[in-house]
């Protein structure tokens, strides 16, 4: 149910975007137009004003500090291997669920990998939860399942719904109600689980003596990569995944006995899902929403970094933006649903509660950064910034904390991923992995207005919003052609950010503040570089324009229709 005004019209969630833009224009007009100056640097009034106006940066610093605690805490809680228990004499029944929607490029690969899993055939079923509307994809799925049922003996079934109610959550819930399996293993269509995945994951639900650990609801595996070296975009994503999974989730699992399900590469105890109320589409991140319901119900969840399930990272900026929009918007929806419970009704120690609040509210960094980069140029121009005390103070306040955080994160994520990559860690390999921090910083800077818009839509938009799939490229390296829903408020936010930062760059150049001008131009360039790539799934620039050289042989081949089978 969406938020509505008294007349019943949908609430315009983009109003915070417009409000920030109006405030930014007014700030620019007043500060750059009239050239007001604040109190003398170092005076009592200067300190009061400067510290007050730096509150967004202070809160960002608290988020960074919490991140440092997680990453350094990994060495005490999380680095050691998690030991599995012992399976009972009669293996439990497992249902592998493969939710998919028009996944022509990867459907065959996903179904084949699921049917190749090592588990007693009489204790294994595979549900292909196919909501596809594309006729070629439906025919492909049916043909692959028929062949594998005959060749492998696996009970693989295709389940289709008349209506796509509840999107992925609705498909998972309908499939859950049709199986009596004790465990549910879930894989998105772009994942290729190793053959021994179940043999390594299911024992964690048992104690060393073979007795079931009924308090453990979820075992989450680490994401690996099938295409991490494909481009600067995939290298940036691989660094984020390595950091988040290997370091953060390992620490959270070992320290607090809770991680959120990442939507794939995890095994749920079916009875726990039933007890928590089943899947529901109240949020775009149905996996995280279900995880917090399990937390409140008293269950534990675990992350096992030693089990790695390779997956395809989004290969285009269009796909990446669709994925990030869904995740950011969905996490804010989870806050709307469960933050009050976490703050006031869930029983936990102060330290554990503080961490769980940080866990749930990490998306607040996006509006904080958006507010900060909007304010900082005006603070510089009026002298209400720490750079007014000297270059060293400016570097210490604005560059050093983020630089140290990036260095720590990149070093640890590059050195501690021994289970994710096959190559031995040498200085050269480490250097290549560490270098991923460069595209990581550029991509994250460029995503700022997009993520701010997703945050605003999650906070003020409808809870039951459309689930937009992340297109997959498969073995061809290119996603199949599909329709893109252009979100114009997001585009407008990006365009405004570029224009605003460039305007300040001009002001700084006129004032001889070359380093400040470079910083503003850098932000504008990062946002613009991602903006022009919107539509790259179809070889487009700026959504609709054909780039130079479109009529080359490779472009013609890219536009050719994909085969049906």
UniProtKB/TrEMBL annotation:
Residue spans crossing the bilayer: 12-32, 44-69, 368-389, 395-415, 488-506, 512-532
Pfam families: Glyco_trans_2_3
One example GO MF annotation: glycosyltransferase activity
Superkingdom to which the source organism belongs: Bacteria
Residue ranges constituting the Glycosyltransferase 2-like domain according to the UniProt record: 185-378
Compartments where located: Golgi apparatus membrane
UniProt membrane topology term: Multi-pass membrane protein
This protein's UniProt keywords: Membrane, Transferase, Transmembrane, Transmembrane helix
Primary residence: Golgi
Family matches, as InterPro entries: Glyco_trans_2-like, Nucleotide-diphossugar_trans
Protein name: Glycosyltransferase 2-like domain-containing protein
